[in-house]
Amino acid sequence: MLFMPIRFVAVALLLLFSLFCSGCTSKPAEKRLRVVASIEPLAYFAQRIGGGYVTVSVMVPSGGNPHTYEPTPKQMSRLGAAKLFVKAGSGVEFELDLMQKIVSMYPGLRICDASSGIQMQPAGHENGVQGEVHDAEEHHHGRFDPHYWLSPQNALVIAENVKRSLAEADPGHSAYYQANADRLKEELRELSSELHVKLAQVVNRRFLVFHPAWGYYASDFALQQIAAEEEGKTLTPRQLERVIQKARANRIRVVFVSPQFSTVQAETIAREIGGVTRPVDPLAFDYQENLRRATDAFKGGMQ
Ligand SMILES: [Zn+2]
């Protein structure tokens, strides 16, 4: 029942949109530019900037894990009808396998690298403690943390990259894409200041996540991410013990978990430190609302 009013509003808005805007800012579905994004947050950028001139679909569905995902044959054939593929470009595993297939199967498909121009941080950098938790031989030197989209600063660059690719794929509507990108970037700047204000008074600025997706976010807001695992691997008992010690030393009471990962070990950590687990989603479609929600969660967990 909770969803009825939202759905009703959505339908009403859609009706209004089609009444007033048919012909001006939208096209019938079959004539729209088909865009495929690899993950939900990038689909959000493509949808916001492409507006009524694009149809966006996503490879890794909500709740899917991009580190292990394999596209279905249906998704692969959908790529054949697409004009533009928006990739994360930051070493997300499923994408690395996929790109070679895509390029050979669909040489005409345009590829937008959403990470173009963004400074990648190495996995296990100062915002995580992987280096302390894992043994030296388990380090993966030269591997980058792929989760750059969770920084609102990086989101401004993503918006530019997506806009540029849409304008190249569909030059007739470049002014429209530019206007949408400008509006989105303005919202992202406001979002960033809003979150800075929200987090300003937090004293203990360390948070513990099971999956290390929030390093770029932590950098943006002068927080410190402590991460339990790396690359989705199950922790050894020794690694688990060291995370528990680290959490205790930092007076941490909340273990943040991603809905894409098993929470069994996170629950163990939470039990050992007398704390709880709380979900934060690194891959939600509604980018801005999701960062607000995650920030509230982190703020609550750091006090
Ligand atoms: Zn991840």
What does this structure look like?
With 303 residues, this protein is α/β, with parallel strands linked by helices. The protein has 2 domains: 26-119 and 141-192, Rossmann fold; 201-302, Nitrogenase molybdenum iron protein domain (Rossmann fold, 3-Layer(aba) Sandwich), CATH 3.40.50.1980. The protein is built from 11 helices and 8 strands. The strands form 2 sheets. Strands 2-1-3-4 form a 4-stranded parallel β-sheet, with helices on both faces. It has a 4-stranded parallel β-sheet with strand order 6-5-7-8, with helices on both faces. Helix 2 (40-50) crosses helix 6 (152-169) and helix 2 (40-50) packs across helix 7. The chain starts with a helix and ends with a helix. Residues 18-23 and 128-141 have low confidence and may be disordered. The structure holds zinc ion. Zinc ion is lined by residues 67, 147, 211, 213.
Shape, please?
Answer: globular
Main sheet strand line-up:
2-1-3-4
Q: What is the number of helices?
A: 11
Ligand identities:
zinc ion
In CATH, what is the homologous superfamily of the largest domain?
Answer: Nitrogenase molybdenum iron protein domain
- What is the CATH class of the largest domain? Alpha Beta
The level of helicity is 40-55%
CATH names the topology of the largest domain as Rossmann fold
Succession of helices and strands: HEHEHEHEHHHEHEHEHEH
Strand content: 5-15%
Strand runs, count: 8
State the end-to-end distance.
Answer: 34 Å
Using the 3D structure, state the CATH architecture of the largest domain. Answer: 3-Layer(aba) Sandwich
Q: Quote the average pLDDT.
A: 87
What is the domain tally?
2
| Largest β sheet strand count, sense and barrel closure | 4 strands, parallel
Radius of gyration: 20 Å
